[in-house]
UniProtKB/TrEMBL annotation, chains A, B:
GO terms for molecular function: catalytic activity; FAD binding. GO terms for biological process: respiratory electron transport chain. The keyword Flavoprotein applies. InterPro entries: FAD-bd_oxidored_4_C, FAD-bd_PCMH, FAD-bd_PCMH-like_sf, FAD-bd_PCMH_sub1, FAD-bd_PCMH_sub2, FAD-linked_Oxase-like_C, FAD-oxidored/transferase_4, Oxid_FAD_bind_N. It comes from Paenirhodobacter enshiensis. SUPFAM superfamilies: FAD-binding/transporter-associated domain-like (SSF56176), FAD-linked oxidases, C-terminal domain (SSF55103). Residues 33-211 form the FAD-binding PCMH-type domain. The keyword Flavoprotein applies. Belongs to the FAD-binding oxidoreductase/transferase type 4 family. This is FAD-dependent oxidoreductase. It holds the Pfam family FAD_binding_4. It comes from the Bacteria.
Length: 461, 461
């Protein structure tokens, strides 16, 4: 039997795509990466994933796991490789409101999880632009972040246990639903963020959180990032750390938004620095909006806030969220955009922006930028549109951004993962011993190197 | 040169103990484990640790890292091995109130970190009985828990980055101070909780938290665990999740406490179930005590609380804390005590206690128990005093506790680590594929098996 025939024997004829049937499976949604997969296989159960991996292992076939395919770094590029789609593993195995946990398979879409938590009077607090497509396996494998990390932590902090299939098909079941479990090495967090290079996550247990009973949501304009950070401290102190999101949209972001999404134009005159803030309470009877109003009035008196609008209905709240959530849509208008996700110590953000403006002019005078940031996390999406398609210039721009972030005590990758696009940064900036340890672990768990080959780990050593 | 001479050349004569000088280094503080180390070496810097490990690696010498030596599971037993004490690496490298982080070396004592945070208007929220002796390297290596996990998470969740020396002496520097950093595999969490079997943590960056401006602290008696869990939900909902500690002390714990520490006798008549609770606020002007009083009044009306006392001074608050903190002191009165740290889903705690009472009578009719629990985490310290020193009976008791916990969806180890004492439970209950993966990683990072040999991983494959 050919490999394709053997795959069909495992998952059924309809769930193996090859030849022209793989059209639509060879492109990243940004449009930048393109590839021709060997085939696409769509298992429906952990056991089928295991049998596919046994076959891949026996035949030395490269396997690229894929969920919603919303990667921004070439993480699912699968040239000549078998794409293993987890989309059919979309069962929610258990929701337990008493323990506030949910067990979901790798193909469950983030929005589905969020809706399910909501139906149970709880919240699954991971939220980012691609939540209508991104799947459990993908957002775990990239340790996704988003707009509520400030309050609830990133994906890693929301996950209690995982089930995964290893390179040779063995199934590891560590689906613990406990808050405390110290039985040996932390293999859960090792696979989370490994971008499918150490194993294929097939299911996970997540913590849910109590659903806030009321939100306070506002958009403010101000003159400087310093003022914005003072405001963050003011609101955190005044609400007991109840800030769920604190997002930065500079002036040119607001202009671009008004141009591409006039329906989402700003309800206030945009300043140099515009901040979207949301605070929440889980205490019945508390009014966070009143509290936020008082805090903003204080910030205005102190000269930190120029103008502000507070949402007075759920509809207004949703509209303010959409202004921020449209970031991906207004950023990825050009496949040549260089998107980054650096993070910096909070007091170095302005220095980073100033230094980059100066450096960028020297590298590519025609380049322009679009910035949006999870300010409370120090996490900036600094996107650059180069003047042309020259790969050397692109590389120089990427290198400058990473170097500048690292030099200021930051990181070149806060939440999007490494994939292919950040391999040069890994080679240049990752601690060399940590890289050696990563390679040792990769060899130990995937000695043939068949799991998502070429990703995360730069060549060499 | 002999090994001892070579060690002296690295750390200086005074910092290598051998022969009779190692007296005092051959016993766990519980008194249960005893050993004769080859020698004790006390490096003062990461570089010295690196050189010691290069030497150990070249000579195939087993190395047991040790901090405050407060392990409860034989984690520092070092029969014929070199004990590597991190106590002289006690420098706080940086405190940064702006970023709310602290960088501390492995030998810094937990209480020192707590005091330092306090001096900076912040809090380092890890707290447990041994905090006056336990050191950074040890509490990271066991992923320690304690009484504030409910609010702030365990050690893993407090740590942002680590520096570690590998088995062959290479130094891995991943001392990131960022909240978000996705640059490759999560090696930090792999070494945290590995009990020194994968590398020696020499320094770490920790998050600090805003210091509460006011606490509300109470001791309550009630009739059942069910009532206690209803009360927890009531206080969490009514304070917006501000419960810092929710600790369970049953009737016989209170009796034992009154007997051994009459100065800490209960200020209220103990019930079957006694709960220590502390809630806090970081919002200036808020009065959490008034809020707690109202919530307790409601719980009394509902029949859930029989009696309660609320601390009205810092002195009273400290005294209530001490009643709980005395647990280790009143538990480890007999080196034969079998201490455990199981965790269970919150709704299975009473079933566990009932089933264990029945099983224990069948195994050892003369055994008696002492229980104390981090109830909010489902984490029970179920200690058994066997009728005699018979090792087979001890093993049967341990096995029954682990089996009962796992059968009810819990774990045999929530926060103390595996060490030596829980190797049979690892062999019996850990997912076999996860065990294989752990062994693969151990071989990859420590091919000679010189780092804390015999711990965490049960023999066999």
């Amino acid at each position: 039997m050919t490999l394709i025939e053997q795959l069909r024997a495992i998952v059924g004829d309809a769930n193996v795509l090859s030849g022209t049937d793989t059209a639509g499976w060879g492109e990243e949604w940004t449009g930048y990466y393109h590839w021709s997969p060997l085939a696409v296989v769509r298992p429906a159960s952990t056991e089928e994933v295991s049998r596919v991996m046994q076959l891949a292992s026996a035949t030395g076939t490269a396997v690229v796991p894929v969920g919603g395919n919303t990667s921004l770094n070439g993480g699912t590029k699968a040239e000549g490789a078998l794409m293993l789609s987890l989309a059919r593993m979309n069962r929610v195995r258990e929701v337990n409101p008493a323990t506030q946990t949910v067990t979901a398979e790798a193909g469950v879409i983030l929005q589905t999880l969020r809706d399910l938590a909501d139906e149970n009077g709880l919240v699954f607090p991971l939220t980012f632009g691609a939540q209508g497509s991104a799947m459990v396996g993908g957002f775990l494998s990239t340790n996704a972040g988003g707009s509520n990390v400030l309050r609830y932590g990133n994906t890693r902090m929301l996950c209690l246990g995982i089930e995964a299939v290893l390179a040779d098909g063995r199934v590891m079941n560590t689906l613990s639903a406990l808050r405390k479990d110290n039985t040996g090495y932390d293999l859960r967090d090792l696979l989370i963020g490994a971008e499918g290079t150490l194993g294929i996550i097939t299911a996970a247990v997540f913590k849910l959180a109590p659903r806030p009973v009321a939100y306070a949501t506002a958009l403010m304009s101000m003159h400087s990032l310093g003022a914005a950070l003072r405001l963050l401290n003011r609101i955190q102190a005044g609400t007991g750390g109840a800030v769920e999101a604190f997002e930065y949209m500079p002036h040119n972001y607001m202009l671009r938004l008004a141009e591409l999404r006039p329906d989402l134009a700003s309800p206030i005159a945009p300043g140099e620095v515009n901040i979207f803030v949301e605070a929440a309470t889980t205490v019945p009877g508390e009014d966070p909006t009143e509290r936020l109003q008082t805090l903003l009035a204080g910030a205005m008196e102190a000269g930190d806030v120029a103008d502000a609008v507070i949402a007075t209905s759920e509809q207004q709240r949703r509209r303010l969220w959409q202004m921020r959530e449209a970031a991906a849509e207004i950023t990825f208008t050009d496949p040549l955009v260089i998107d980054t996700d650096v993070a910096l110590p909070l007091d170095r953000l302005q220095t980073f922006l100033d230094n980059m403006a100066a450096r960028l002019g020297g590298i590519d005078p025609k380049a322009w930028t679009l910035v949006v940031a999870h300010l409370g996390d120090g996490n900036i999406h600094y996107s650059v549109y180069p003047g042309g398609p020259d790969e050397a210039v692109r590389a120089a721009i990427r290198a400058a951004i990473a170097e500048e972030a690292v030099m200021l005590g930051g990181t070149f990758s806060a939440e999007h993962g490494v994939g292919l696009s950040k391999l040069p940064e890994m080679a240049a900036h990752k601690d060399p011993v940590a890289l050696q340890v990563m390679r040792s672990i990769k060899r130990a768990l995937d000695p043939q190197g068949i799991l998502n080959p070429g990703k995360v780990l730069p060549a060499g050593d």
